[in-house]
Amino acid sequence: MRLEVQGLRLAYLGAGLATIRDLDLVVEAGSLTALLGPSGSGKTTVMKLIAGHLAPDAGEIRLGGRSLLGLPPERRRVAMVFQDPLLFPHLTLAGNVGFGLKLRGLPPAEVAAEVETMLDRVQLAGLGARRPHQLSGGQQQRAALARALVLRPDLLLLDEPLASLDAGLRDEMRSLIRRLQAETGVTTLIVTHDQSEAVVMADRVALLLEGRLAQVAGPAEIIRRPATEAVARFFGGVNFLDGQVTGGTFTCALGSLPLATPGPKGPARVTIRPEALRLGRGELRGRVTGVTFLGTQYRVELSVAGQPLMALVQAFGSEGPAVGADVALDLPAEALWRLPG
Amino acid sequence: MRAETLRLLAGLVVALALVLPLVPLAIWSVAHGWRFPDLLPQAWSGKAWALALSQRGGVLESFGLTLGIALATTALAALVGVPAGRALGLYQFRGKRAVLLLLLAPAILPGIALVLGLHDLFLRLGLVGSAGGVILAHLVPVLPYMTLVMAAVFTGFDTRIEAQARSLGAGPWRTFLTVTLPVILPGLLTGALFAFLVSWSQYLLTLAIGGGRVQTLPLVLYSYAAAGRNDVAGAIALIYLLPGVVILLFTARRITGHSVGLELRP
Prior knowledge:
The complex is a heterodimer of chains A (341) and B (266).
Chain A lengths: L2 E9 L6 E10 L4 E5 L6 H9 L6 E6 L2 E2 L10 E4 L11 H5 L1 H5 L4 H14 L15 H13 L5 E5 L7 H18 L2 E6 L2 H7 L2 E6 L2 E6 L1 H6 L4 H6 L4 E8 L2 E4 L2 E4 L7 E7 L5 E16 L3 E8 L2 E8 L11 E5 L6 E2 L3
Parallel strand pairs in A: 3-8, 3-9, 6-7, 7-8
Antiparallel strand pairs in A: 1-2, 1-4, 4-5, 9-10, 11-12, 11-14, 12-13, 14-19, 15-16, 15-18, 16-17
Helix pairs in contact in A: 4-5
Chain B lengths: L1 H18 L3 H7 L17 H6 L6 H32 L5 H13 L2 H15 L5 H25 L4 H8 L4 H29 L3 H7 L6 H10 L3 H27 L3 H4 L3
Helix pairs in contact in B: 2-12, 4-7, 4-9, 5-7, 6-10, 7-9, 7-10, 8-9, 9-12, 11-12
C-alpha cells in the first residue's frame, strides 16, 4: 500500500532543534524505498513516527489512504524490523515467527503451517524448535524478517537490517530481502546510512540530511544528477567547479567545457564524479599532486590550472600515475552535471 | 580426582555448618527431658510433635497465617517493585540518587528505631493489631529488596523488544504478559524469594504492629521457648525452617546455575 508522509515535524523537547522538519515522503505501493542518511539525520526517528512509537508535532501519515496518526503501533499493520533481531528469548524460533499470527487468533494448525512455509522461504526450514540463542547472527536476522513478513503487513519497515551482520552475510541478506520483497510485493521502507546498500537494494532512494529530505530519486539518477552539492558530497562527489554558462558551454578556471544539459544562462556550479574523469587522454593538462592506492582503484589528486580535482582510476594491471607527473585529462560533457539552483 | 575429593570435603563442611546447629533442635523436639550434662536425653517422646501438629497447639493455624502474610507481602512488593525497579533501572531522572537512598534507609536504620516510629504512626492510622497492618509494616523492609533486584533486572532490559511486540500486533497488556514478564521472570522470582523470606522471618515488626493479636510462627515459637517448653519450641523451629529449605532446594539451580544436589558431584 502507498505510504504518504506530509509535513511531518518533530522537535525534541529542550534541544530546540527540529529533528524532523516538514518531511514529505511517498513510498509507492509495492516499491522498495530506501531512506538514506548519515547518523543523526533523523532516519530512525522517521521510522518510529511511521511505526507509531513516537507521535509527531505536526503532519500526516497515510497508508493506503487511511491516516495512521492516533492509531497505536499494534493497529497500524506496519511491521518493523529493528537493527538487532530482538527475538523473544523465551520462545522457540517457530514461536517467534508465529507470535503475531497467534495474536490474531489463528488456529494453531494454521499458524504452524504458515510458520513452516515462512521458515522455508528464509532458509531456516527444520530449525523451528531451536531457541534464539542457538541460532547464528545471520539466522536470527532472517528469523526477525520472517516474523514480520509472515503477518503480510501493509508496510514493512527495516531499520538498518544489515548493520549488525558481518560483511559476508550482508550480501546474502541483501539479496534475500530483495527477493522476498519482489515475491511478496510488500511495500517496504528500509532505513540505512550505507549509500551502496541503498543504491543496490532500492527502487527509490530518499536522502535525508539534517531532518529534511534532500532528494528522492531512482538510485542511478540520485548519483548522476544530484539536486544539491550536499547530495553530491554525500555520494562521494568532491569535484565542484564555479563558472558561467553561456549557450551550451560552461566557462570556468579550466576553460570552456561543453555541457550535455546546460540549462539557462548565468552563474553555475558544475560537478563531475571522480570516477568519470578520464586520465591519459583529452585536451586538458594537469599535474598529479597525490596518489593513493585503494585496492581496486587509485585515487589521483590533480591540480588543473590551479583548480584541485580528484579522479578514481581502475588499478587493474597498471602502476598508476606518478606524483608530479603531467597528465592529459578529459571531462566528458555527459558526466558534467550542473547543480540546479 | 584430588579436586573431586576437595570439592566433596568442602561440600561436607558447608553442609555440617548448616546442619549442626539444627541437631539439638531436632533432639529437643523428641526428648522427654534433657538435662546437663547428658549428651543425649534419658527418654524420648513424641508429645512435642503431637502438640505442634494438633489444633490445640495453634502452630498449624499460625503457619497458615504466616504463609498468608508472607505471600501477600510478596505480591504487594512485586506490584510496587516491578514498576519502581523499571523506572530506576531504565531511566535517568532528577532525584534518582535521593530515591535510592530512601529505598536503602530501612536497611540502614536500626530495626528497633524503625519499629517504634512505625508503631506510633500505625496507631494513629488505626492499623495496629490487624494482619493488614502487619503486611504493610512488612513491606518496609521487603520493598527495598524487591525494588533493587528489579532495578538491576531492568538495567539490562532492552525496551525495543516491547516496541517489537507492539509492531507485531500485541497491545500494551499483551506485550507485558507475553514478552516483558517472561523476560524478567527469573529476576522477579529471585526478588520474590527474598521478599518472602524477609517477611517470613520478621519478629519485631509483627510483635509491635500486630499488637500480640497477629500470632505468626516466630511469635508462637518465642512464646513456647520463653515458657521453657524447649521440646515444642524445637518442633516449631523445624517447621519454621521448612519454607526456606524447600525454596532453597527448588531455586538453587535457578539462582546459582547448579542444583544443590548436583553440586557435590562433578
